[in-house]
Write a structure and sequence with these properties.
single chain; alpha+beta; Conserved Hypothetical Protein Mth637, Chain: A; 5 strands; 35% strand
Length: 78
């Protein structure tokens, strides 16, 4: 099990997940922060980045804020 801190920036031109200094990640998401669309896109992006299933990625804290703590339970292979 792994944890990552993610700062989300919705309404971006493209969806990108990148790591910055200090171990924090920045997610630029195409989706707007409406009806959970940005959270769903974040889960898919994290799952793709770490090569795990979407079901292995959960937003543990911050589901309604821009700073989130995400739990990855699958084998990340990293």
């Amino acid at each position: 099990m792994a944890w990552i801190e993610v700062k989300v920036k919705p309404n971006a031109r493209e969806s990108v997940l990148s790591q910055v200094e200090g171990g924090t990640w920045v997610a630029r998401l195409k989706s707007p922060p409406v009806d959970g669309k940005a959270n769903a896109e974040l889960i898919a992006l994290v799952a793709k980045q770490f090569s795990v299933r979407r079901g292995d990625v959960k937003i543990k804290t911050g589901s309604a804020s821009r700073l989130k703590r995400v739990e990855i339970t699958g084998d990340t292979g990293r």
